[in-house]
Amino acid sequence: FEERSTARLSERQYAKIRSNKIGIVFQSFNLINRLTVLENVALPLIYKGVSRIKRLEMASSILKSFHLQEREYYMPWQLSGGQMQRVAIARALVNKPSIILADEPTGNLDSRSSHVIMEELANLHKKGNTIVMVTHNPNLTSYASRVINMLDGKVASDRRVTVESHEESKAVAISLHKSDKPKDNDPKKSKSAKDTENKSKKTAKSKKSEDDKK
Fold first, then answer.
1. In which domain, by residue range, is 138 found?
2. Does residue 1 lie within any of the structural domains?
3. Is residue 101 helix, strand or coil?
4. What is the pLDDT of residues 81-107, one digit of tens each?
5. Distance CA 61, CA 56 (A)
6. Which residues are registered as beta bridge partners of 150?
7. In terms of pTM, does the model score above 0.70?
8. Mean pLDDT, residues 70-76 taken together
9. What total number of domains does the chain contain?
10. Given pLDDT bands bounded at 50, 70 and 90, which one contains residue 181?
């Protein structure tokens, strides 16, 4: 781990590594109901010995990056499922860990929030963090530099993604989130737009008839 053997470490040393170097995003949130959102996010910093004022400042800062600054003093039971997941992710990141273990980090989020979360994780990876993510969503693999597919508990494939193909697939994934233009047969198409289109067709047809007579 970080060029250091962990084979003969004591349990206390293992605990220190888990506390200071590893951030975990649980699939089931695991927030403490009697603590506020701000206190939940700041919790890992207690074990690192950070003062109360400093850890609350750090927790508040990370919550802003997830657009949760207005929920700092809410209790977990006052949040939606998606908001609780974002709080859980913020808690995993507040310690600025070297490795992030994420189990379905966007499982309870909508597409827009998922994109925000994945961009944040991608930025952390660029800064040197190792991120190990388990997901059933194939679209999220577009953010990865290495993709390992599992089938029946065994490795089915293991491939590395080049920078070029990574950026290309990432662009495709983002465009899917932004693609919301209605098609011609979209029922949501406005009546005025349809009327204009029909008038244009009638005008073109009338002009063609006049040309035929000539």
1. 11-204
2. no
3. strand
4. 888 988 998 999 898 888 999 888 887
5. 9
6. 155
7. no
8. 96
9. 1
10. very low
